[in-house]
Structure formats: structure tokens, C-alpha cells
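## retry 2 of 3
previous attempt timed out at serialization; input unchanged, resubmitting
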Amino acid sequence: MKIAWFCIPAHGHTNPTLGLVKALTSAGYQIYYFSFEMFREKIEDAGAFFIPCDGYDFEMEDKENADRVGKDQAFAVELLVSSTLALDEMVTEKIGEIEPDVIVADSVAYWGKLAALKHGIPYISSTTTFAFNRYSSKYMKHGAGETIKMLLSMPKVNKQIRRLQEKGYPVKGLLDILQNDNDTNTIVYTSKYFQPCSETFSDRYHFIGPSIRPVTETYEKKADKMVYISMGTVNQNKDFYRHCINAFGNTEYQVIISMGVNHDHFVDVPDNIELYESVDQMAVLQMADAFITHCGMNSASEGLYFGVPLVLFPQTPEQDAVAKRAEELGAGIRLPSIKEDDILKTVARVIEEKDFKEGAEKVSESFKQSGGFKEAVAFIESI
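## retry succeeded, writing output
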């Protein structure tokens, strides 16, 4: 069987798919993975054929554009349509050559879904966030102002839809592109327990649990309690890190901070605090007693997989939805502010109050009881 797989240029959307890709290629499937040069090595290591999408005036590669997408719906639709049309000729040609049996596309790599519609090929959504429908979307903080802006921008949106129709894409409106309904075959990288409103999704949704990478490095646990802090690859909030260093300096905690490229801005760091540009997160989380996280879906899931209670510090509406769910299940608590006192007190609470550890362990158990790659491979076969 041949699978065409589409993803956006983002680590958080690519990494969770790689274990499943490896499971499929190991089972003898041919996977043609449409992605971007920065991910070539990882994708080829998973056994897939890499097809580059770079160099096609693909505007989603621009970081400023990516930031604006979350704030401006009309711009997001224009970008999605322009990206789809920029890739149209290449994708059409490659699909003609490959003749895939099925198309798997990230839930926001809409050009993959549109290609499946255009070429009449079965489609599976690969969802690395929560699955969102009208029930679970209440977890997202989109205010009335954004809805009004969206309605005002509809003429622009309709113009974009016409651009797609002229190129042979059978779409009637925005929802055909953006919305997965209960008839959409979908793989979600979380458990039914962690997914909000999971009972409202049909059996076409397979909640397979998170992809957990094998540990490749070792770190030494040097204290009775260890705190891990990471705000993901994008966040560069120096004040936050400075307050963490001041709050935990000379406490009895061992503190490991993964802070991206700014770790060299800090001098005279206390001995109990270790700063890294990046770490093997799985290796650190195996030892951690608390995890201060931006609540990216992958980071939060990895922490909870190892039963680590979370200190929740979300930065985007999607991350806020993850934080809200972790709070509901008693697996974490929000950081009220980045004041040193608040940081120290909140971490002490999640470590000392055993309910948070129990909440995290429950989520962990639900992840381990999910069907994993085995269920996903069987599901794809059935399609």
C-alpha cells in the first residue's frame, strides 16, 4: 500500500507522526512524505520517501506569517489558499506518479485534505492537537470580537474559495476545508481520557495516545526533588527564566532549564540550576517531580506520560485548552504570575500535594492503555 503524507513546517506537528511512519514502513508500506528540508533527515530515518515542498512560494514557512495566522482568520485563509495553489502543480504531478491508496494529512496541512478531495483519494486527518468539534472547541478562548472580525472578512474568504474552485478543488465554503466532522477518518495522538468531550466523537476517531520517543541521553538526579522547566522552542521570555533562576537558586531542588538559544545570557547561576539550550526531554522527565511547561500538546503529554504533575503556563489559545484539561483532571495547576514567590509556591504545591501526582498518573495510565501505533496501522489498513 502507498500513502501520501502531508505536514506543516513545525516540529510539534511532525515529531508525533514519525513513530507511526516508522511502524508503517517497517510493516512494508511505502510512505511519500511531503514536508520541508529541515525535516528531511528525520523523515528519511523513519523509512519514508521525502518530497520537498520548499521553494514554491510557500508562505507558511515565514515566521511572521505563521504568527499572524493565529490572529487573523481572513489572512489565514488567504495564506492557506495561496500555499495550496503554490503546491498544486507539484502535488498533482506527484500524486499522478505515486498513485497513493490513501492520503494522510496534518489537520492544518489543508493542502493535503484538498488534494484528497480533488483527486478522489481516501483521506485521514493526523491530529497532533486535541480534536476539535463544536463541543470541545469551547476549550479554545476565541472571543466574540474574533467571531465578528471573521464575519466581516467573509467576502475576502469567499474570493479565496473561488480561487480554489477555479483550479478544480470541489469546495463550497470555508467549512469544507477547515472542519473535520464525525465522518472524517482521524488519528489523534492522545487518549480518550485526556481528550475533552471524547464521547462526542464518532468511532472514526482513533485516540492512539502520544508518541513517546526512546531516551537517548542520561542525566544524573542530584537531589531528592527535581524541577524541569521548558517553554518550548519558540518562547524567549528572559524575565521568566531570570525569575525562575532567582526563585530556585540555593533551594534544595535540582532544577534543569531548557531555554533554547538564550542560555548564555545568564551568568553566576547557582550550583543547583543547570541551563541547557536543549535536552533529551524524555530522559529528564523520567526523573522530574514537577514540570513547568508552556502546555504545548507534545510537552504536556510527555510530562503526563511519565506521571509528572504540571505547572501550567500556556501562551496561546491551543495551549490554554491543554492547560484547562490538565487542570480539570487534577494533573496540574496554573502559574498565577511569573513573580518569584508565585513560581516557588506553585511548584511546592504540585510536589507536596499528592493529588496532583495521582492526577498525572491517571492520565499516564490512559496513555499507556491506548491502542498506540498498532491501532493506527490497523485503522489505516481498514481504510
